[in-house]
Amino acid sequence: MAGTLSVLFKKNKQLNTDELIRKKTFWSFFIFFCLIISAFMGWKLLQQQPKVNGVLRPFKNVMAANEQVFNKILSDKHLAKEYPLSEAVPVPRVNGYLGMGNEFDASQWSLIVVRKNGDTLRVSLDQIKKLPKKDLVFNFKCIEGWCQVSHWAGARFSDFISAFGLQDESAFKYVGMSTPDQQYYVGIDMPSALHPQTLLCYEMNGKPLPMNQGYPLRLIIPVKYGVKSIKRIGTMKFSDNRPPDYWADKKGYDYFSGL
Q1: Which residues contact 146 (CB under 8 A, 6 or more apart)?
Q2: With a threshold of 0.85, does the pTM exceed it?
């Protein structure tokens, strides 16, 4: 009798275990399919959202939220890591050729700065070289996914502002820069432009900039991705409204592009 009860108990226990496994399996598959359907419906809903500069509005909203966060945490104490000169690559990679047309005549170049009152100031490379020189070895990061430790030198943008009496202009929220042929242009928020590591750069690896790296003058701004480090600066303007920005306007990239 005891043996029979033991067998029945084991059978009931096995049945209960099998039933529990079936229930758990059912609910697992049910939840899985619900998640799949929810993800599909969410994707369909997302695709129905309007686009801004070719980018779905929810993504643009996320970019705007990120910009607000970066603007609040950016400070002069937020410095990009600097490296010893020995770690700099001998030939830095070129991050794009827009605005680098062969018709450029370097002998005719000067930096055109549009003042607050509309007057223009023309600054030569020799004038910029008279400012205190800053060498910078940092990890240049491209939005395409690559990075390189590279060596640059030039004048701090903040020193340039002070030396040429552009304090009123620096009170604006943004500075816009474009190449001489207007084919490439960027907009930079003023706090990032005035950051102590932002350079008006005229040297690479201790020598004048090569043509393909923006001779005679380019921007180096370590707190942002490389798309903001415009090569061959031709014109500089100041504004409280966002200046045009090639990748933000054409492709919907993040305007702030902060690191």
Answers
A1: 93
A2: no
